[in-house]
Records
---
Amino acid sequence: MNLKALFNINYFKENIRKSKGLLAFLLGIIPLLNIIYLIILITSKKSNLLYLNNLSIITYIGIIFIPLALSITLFGFVFKRKSVDFIMSKPINRKTIFITNTIGGILILLIFSLINTLIFGLFSLIFNSITIPFALLIDYFILWFISYTFIFVVINLAISLTGNLITSLVVLLLIVLIVPYFNIVNNLIEESSSKANYVTCNNDDCKPTEYYCYGDTSCEEHLKNNEYRLYYNEKMSYKFIAPLSIANEDLYNNISIIKMIILSIIYGFVGYLTFKKRKMENNETSFKSNKIHQLIKGLTLIPICFITYVIIISTDTIGWLISVVGIIIYSFVYDLITRKEITRPLKTIIISLIIFICFYSLYYLKFDVLLKDSKAINNINSITYKEMEITDKKTINYILKSILTRTSNQYSYNDLMTFETDNKLYKVDASINEELSLYLNNLLNNWQKENSYNFNYQKVDYIIYNNSSIPITNKIKKLLNENKNNINEFNYSNLEESEKIYIYSYQNHKYEELIIPIKLSQELYNEIIIYQNNQFINLLEKTTYKPYYQLQPYDNNIFTEEQYNIFNYVINSNKNAFIDYLKNNNQVTMTEESLNVVVYFNETYTVTISNPEKFKEEFLKYQEKVKDEKEYINLINSYKNIESYE
Amino acid sequence: MIEINNLSKTFNRQDYVLENLNCQIKDKAIYGLVGANGAGKSTLLRIINSIYQADTGTVLIDGQNVYDNESLKQEMAFVPDDLFFYPSYTLMDMAQFYKALYKKFDMNYVINTANVLKLNINAKISSFSKGMKRQCALICALATNAKYLFFDETFDGLDPVVRKYFKKLLSEAMSKNDTTIIMTSHNLRELEDICDNLGLLYKGNILFESDIDTLKTNMYKVQISLKEDFNKKTFKKLKILSYKKVGSVATIIIDENGFNSKEYLESLNPVILDYLPLTLEEVFIYQMEALGYEFESVI
């Protein structure tokens, strides 16, 4: 196969050259904004573990307009007769034009995506305060390159089908947004309904021990079929084009990526055939065929009719009038914008009103008829609670039994769980009693331990202790790995916040979060505490500002309430002595008592001080030095006043 | 040779812009295509240049179908009536665009011709006058060294001096590359000077075509007066396209078609016998009248 016949590099170069300024601006604006975003993050001085959503903030903005601008640059000539004459009379055939522009456009998007990925990668390498795991960079690159390419291919198809820019934009939006639109509307319907649903329990393992309908006939009817009341919303799993769904929870999912790739190939092929057969005389109007024009206009009425539905249900008769007039005006405005003329106005009105009635009826059916039917879930395959997935049938039945049991005199709280059946997800507002709470916490404890034990510590991307990040060294990785057997000695439910280190690892397109007890081993404890203490000391030595010192609540009653209140003033007045004390007492032992002092300076800096009683003596010396200072006296007096008032 | 066979094109599935059009244009000739507005001249040129696809019929050049034929289009250059230039492009930029696509494109030709015409090749074309823009388009088309050149309203906007210069360039191109040129114009006088053949397009079809020499040598305008009274029947041996008599002098348009009219008319001992040359416009008018068309509705 002659590659030159498919991809004419000269034509492509010239095509790009003619719009190089515009392209440079459009393709440069996103990387530039990304750089500004990263600089803002760096200057905030906080350590940042970046998620895919963080990396995508700016890139998201360009999802439509960058591919659109690129597509118009390459294919926009078809919208004007003059440019059609110019290009189509040149010695290049339609196949070569389409393939050259499509492949060339994809290459530009590839470079564009690489530039963005490189920017993130370089910033992550150069600046310690930004953490972007390599796997996340790859995900970012794949997600956005494929998403941009998908939109680009769809726009090319839309341009091949239509005769002007505005209509191609309408076609583009219909192709890419119609499924997300239904997803959003469906979720809106589900979330706006607060009706009771049911769950089917046919065996004693999940049947509630106590259950009352309080005279509700519907509830009694369901009870006959072993259906018990459960509050939930159906969660429509959205895996079409993830970057286009506003309400999408996981931006990256493999199904979405595969769908976009397959659809890009299909749309690309359809676009190619359409372009080859395109009637080049069809320009400066929407479609050659009036029937297709009416069809596309009709499809645009789907979201418009949702608005009219909302108007009608909230205003009644006047709503109908507003809607009918609105639809007619919309119809004419659409014709004027896309065709620059209104042909057969009466026919246009009739068609638009018929479509309006049809779509209105569909919304009415969905909202007011189908919504009234309560549903009953069958066959729960899994329950997800705080990211812990439970698939064991016995456990599922136990949880269900507990949730469904209604005991009026028992303390309970509500929490969210996700139930998954064969093909659907349900967001359940579960009532959790004390017994179930203990049971779930125990499950969570064991699940976390198991995760921690099975975790590959070579893949750690980020560690947080006391709200600040800890650099990942091979030593820490080794210590975590070597001591993971000790995890069983800890009860996670009893761990204080200052006893937990949080470990993040980007795996399977998301961060896995692990909680590890810092006292897993003395060496690990030392490694982390001494690093944090040194950070704290460095900050105090370098800063010219006056930080705010706070003694962390400490339950051994070594420090009085008054000393907690004057702590900041006393330490600030004895800053150098305090630094010296910290330097000379930087050894910590995990078996001994310790206390924490925190300063807030963009980020939280914590110092762990061993032997609290010794530090108390040191503190009393500081206090002695400042006891005659006016400000200190005022502080003491104001504290005493508050105390006496209380 | 360009062969157009049973070519039809409609834009709305009802009214045909071109309908069963058949035509042959021989090589190394300049073919002038005339016709009223909406006669289909531009559409025909767009189909020949495979901008539009014909509904039915074929256009063959040197025996090959032109539609989407990349290699054949290397030998074709088209200058439409409504010119297109990329925004902010200079003549040099446009020439580079052509060079990227036409293998035989001659950049020196562009530079030299622009020099002669005093066109600044580095100035933005958008700042040029209408005539200068057309000069740019014509220069680029001629620099392709294509074997077939198609010009729609070729000299529209050019001043007489430049027009004459381009006619010279067209002649040079013909002799250098054996070029075949098809051009449309409303101005018959303009085509008269340069075309070898003329075709009249009317309602989507070629009404008639002929080479200009034949048209001019076969038709004469004669003013005649005889001693005795006379009328049209007196000249029944002649093929008369038009006959008008004012007083004793008649003005007759004769299509000789091999017949020696002068000898015949002299044998009638005329008092006045003047043979006057016909302009191409007049030739067309009388031909059309002879074919039964109202001239005003055609041209």
---
Amino acid sequence: MLDYIWLVLFFPLLGVVINGLFSKFLTKRFTDFISCGTIGISFLSSFLILYSLLQLSPEQRSFEKTLFPWIVSGDFKALVSFLIDPLSALMILVVSGVSFIIHIYSIGYMEGDKGYSRYFAYLNLFTFSMLLLVLSNNFLLMYIGWEAVGLCSYLLIGFWYERRSASDAGKKAFIVNRIGDFGFGLGIILIYVTFKDLNYTFVFHSAPEILPYGGVTITAITLLLFLGAIGKSAQIPLYVWLPDAMEGPTPVSALIHAATMVTAGVYMVARTSVLYLMAPVSMNAVMLIGVLTAIYAASIALAQNDIKRVLAYSTISQLGYMFLALGVGAFAAGIFHLMTHAFFKALLFLAAGSVIHRLGGEQDMKKMGGLKEYMPTTYWTFIVAALALAGIFPFAGFFSKDQILWEVFVKRGTLVCGIGIITAFLTSFYIFRLIFLTFYGESRIAKEKREHIHESPNVILYPLIILAVFSAIAGFVGIPLIKGANIIGEFLAPVFDLRVASIHIPETIYHSLGLEILFMIISLLIPIFGIFLAFKFYVKEPALPRRLAERYPALYQLLFNKYYIDEFYDFIIVNPLKNTALFFWKGFDVFIIDGLVNNIASFIKVQSETYKKFQTGYIRNYALYMVIGCIFIMAYYFFR
Amino acid sequence: MVPLSYYLYLTAILFAIGVFGVLIKRNAVIMIMCIELMLNAVNLAFVALSRYLNLMDGQIFVFFIMTVAAAEVAVGLAIVVALFRLKETEDVDEINLMKW
């Protein structure tokens, strides 16, 4: 089965071609069939690949397959070839699986949109790009996938391009990502210059041999690569595109936030873990950015009123957790959280989409409330996802988040871990604030609208239920404490070969089982406290939040306006750039270049006023000129 | 045997008549006739020199010139006729629209 890895990629691409080129001739149901079918086959193949990988012994679980050479020029070789190992197998399973569910959901959500087949073509392309990114076995092919993912995000965020805000958001996503991609591209070039090859296996094997531990080159490479990850995975300071990305259709947000795009950065850092382990400075940078982003984004989410915006900041915060895990060397924990997060974040977005869809596009939570009776299935799936996000036992998020926090505690001590725990508290608070505002309390929806609210159709509900099941149980593949129960950690272990740098990792303090259990209880109690507080604030005493906001207006305004970061960027980057561009346009292009050309032209025009008199229109004058000319020519030859 | 120079004198005279005719006449038809005269003067020079130098090239050239001259007269007269229908005149000084 491993030889047929191309099946995973081929079918989504086929879907793109069919839906993209022949959309005029296809009926809607056929478009559904093609787009969902192709991703379904891709998912099935991913599943079979994982299965065949599991048949092998753990040491053999790394398989490379070359499809064809792409560029061969002198010593340089770029192959279209794929690497299947536990990490990529797990990733393709999550990507294709969650994508498949989102595709099905989209059938219901996009019903009646005029860009129906265009939407599905983009969606297929998005999935294809992400699968390509994950499966490639060299940096160049990964870069193709990396850029294609960025392109698709642009296309899909700006899907309703007639709306100004949507097309602006698309551009913002694309441009902010370019900044990161620039660093990523430089990192790849530096890798090629250093190793003369871009193949993962080669680079990872020779890196410890030819580069010194913690040297300048390896630090530069990893920091540049991490810049790419910061852009793609929306970390400080390049996170600003993600909250705006919700201008796209809601399933697209789910796809971006859960399965594709933002997880690319986490995957990339995990994939290049060998390089990162050799550069302690970069590891610290990853950890620092991760932990700061986690608490920063979570605090913004507290004061947002747009349902999708809360979820967007939640994603940024959770990605911060993943980078925090990667930064302390807990790669398996980071990927584990990536997987569980994919399930519950997709579910949160899809459920939020179900709410928005039923309310006719309303996203403001101030205008919701009391939806529990109207939409019971959406409500219950939302609760499951929120519990998973908050990290309540036994839902998926509990295991992965606890694992991350524990590893951080062991490796970095209490301070960083403390920030992580505060973030966990904020997380549970904002997500349940969202639930209480949306589903509980008095309905704040206009009366005439309220009668039309009812539960979404099955094509929307079934994906929610499937995802809810996974959000509930996905955590059990990584049970800590019990030996042999942490399946995912052992499965991923061969990829993250910690031996490379293990000599340099400081001896961890031996901890007792009791401490770990105590830690678990703490990390369980804190989110519960958050939920309780949210319950008190938004159900028991709804007046309390306003009183609090009035008590501390500066803090509230700061959070509500997202720390004024967008304004700050506008002030220090966007506006100066705009003014420079304006100067070059008005000052340089219009004044100097156009001025030069126009002045030469008008000079000649003025001069020609004199000479045009020769053109009298009388044929005999012309004949005379000719004769005079002939006489001059003859005279020249005669007297030469 | 008439010497070559006589032919060339005749050629020059005919050509000059043609040139002056084009320059001073206003009637379009006469101007075309003068152009023909110039062309035929050149033809004569070609034939004479061809005989003198014992080369056939000149005579072959004459055929080409005659063909071109015929075509030119056909086009030229057609234009004159069309113009006459339009403006009821053959005076080229009246036909001076093509200027700045």
---
Amino acid sequence: MSQTPRALVAGMKAELRRLRRSRLLLALVLVQAVTFILLVTLFGLTGAFAPTIVVNNDHGPQAQILINALQNDHHSFSLTFMDNATMAKQLVVKGDYVALIVIPAGFSQGIAAGNTVPVSVFIDNINTDMTSDIERAVPSAILSFGEVNGFGGISTTVAETDLYPHDTSFIDYMVASALVLDTLIIAGTLSALSVAEEFESKTAKMLAVSPVHPLVPLVGRIMATAAVSAGAIAATVFIALFSYGIMPDFPLEMLSILVFCVVIFSCVGAALGAIMKKSLPVAMLVLGIALPLFLFSGSYEPQRFDGNLIWLASHFSPEYYAVGLMEHAVFNLTVTPEPLMILALTLVGFGAGALALARFFSGRGFL
Amino acid sequence: MLEVGADPIQFSDVHCSISGREILKGITLRVMRGEIMGILGRNGAGKTTLLSLISGLRSQGSGTITVLGASLPSHEAEFRRRMGFVLQEDALYQELTVLENLEFSASLYEVQQARERILEVLDVLGLSDRENQVVSTLSGGLKRRTAIARAFLHDPDLFIIDEPTLGVDADARHAVWAYLRLLKSRKKTVVVATNYLDEALALCDRVAVLETGRILAVEEPRELVRRTGSCIDVECDEPTAQKIASGLIEVKQVIRAEVTLSGVSLFLARGARPDEVMGQFSRYGSIEGFRLRAPDLSEVFKSFGQRP
């Protein structure tokens, strides 16, 4: 084996041995990977499926149709059924539930007779966000209820033409892009820490006086952190598949993109580590920039939600390109105007640029 | 390649500035093959910067430096392979074992039959029973020895060591010294930066005295002591120490007397005969013992007309 591959393998071996003795760090990396994917989807999860009590005092066929309409209202209600309205109201007051819907006795009979039957809704309006969700969802359910019953006055027809052959749940959409965020945070932090520690412990100086360029063993170390990062990301993929129930349209493409992202983001982390040269600040930096860049990258939805300025700015973030690739692999969506090949090539450019920066800042002039 | 008979290190009017501050001011120095050259100076004198120039970690502002036949700065791998460097800091991978640190270094320097060579170096430095110990759990002295083992692993021609015994205990200090003498016996060239005169005396063939970026003198350590004078540490009780200090300061051979916790230290003038001074102790009371030693660094600088 010639000198460069030998130094590369030595760096990788040394880093793997170091990580093997840092079990707490490895455990925390895994926890971090999982908590970040939960954190990102928490927004969608808390805004959906408002916990709502239904007290059905009717038990007739029309009441059941209304309940079905409530249950089928997309991402609106998580229904719990109770018999006692007073007790149910106390649970809403206590904060265990957001709303209480009481279907009165004689509801089915009244509807069948063509009468207007009031359905009472009691809402915990502690914040307008949840209140508005309920206020929008109840009429929506009633509309569905009316359509089932064929009420002429409220029947509607929508001439809908879909861009995609399937709908994508908002939470699922976010989980796919959150995998990218997770990859940046895990791979970026681990490689940044690894490189920064070389400078903190002064071992970078020993590398600098050795016959190989310091970047060679550093790349070996980054390869080791990338392997560990890939393991942690595999855990989040497992959660995405089996907890969120996401079935990717192109599974192999998705896995390839994740591995690709681990490599590119490891290079980005290495550059930051070489520039900062301090482990604590660089860890904070990776966390600090990953989230804003993620939000700017259109990760929450394909629309340019804040106008073109932020969308243009997002082009400076590797997450923008990675999210574009990931949404295609998982849901066959096209969320950027740039074609997939351009997205991939731009990410390669980010990786190469990051390595060039790492090489420059780990040179003998920066020790 | 190194020319036969050429000095391994040649500095000619070398200046070096860091952040706009001139650290080395016109250094001219030659280090001969197979000698141990000491760079003696106080903290901030420029010792580490001088070693950084030799190792290629820094570049000079002006002047010429030739090391092992290569004009610096040189980034040739072959040049680096012929040099071993021990930093002031140990610069070891703390989470790796002694053996793993050396294996890593052996890979960078392409050490042939690495395993055998590592075991040999560990044995010479008395680290054989520590090979599987994680570095972070080693004492300061053992870490220092590990750093030296790493630098010598690839059998360099030139060995540079910054503060070899900084922060190590007496046993480790003697082990390091013994190892450096072993290098000399193998005709290796060694440059040692230190601020301990006794270390320079014990190790070096010649010493370059460095003060605020200038070389004040390059001479043999014993000549340095002769120029400076020696020191006698006397062990006695405090009243006797006071009497000796006030009495012998009047004697022309004694230039300074300091009462210490264990007695009194007498600094002798250049050319003074210690036996003549010691013969007078009995006039002031009984003493428990005495030791003749080299003067401290402040006396050396005083002898060059510098501030103590």
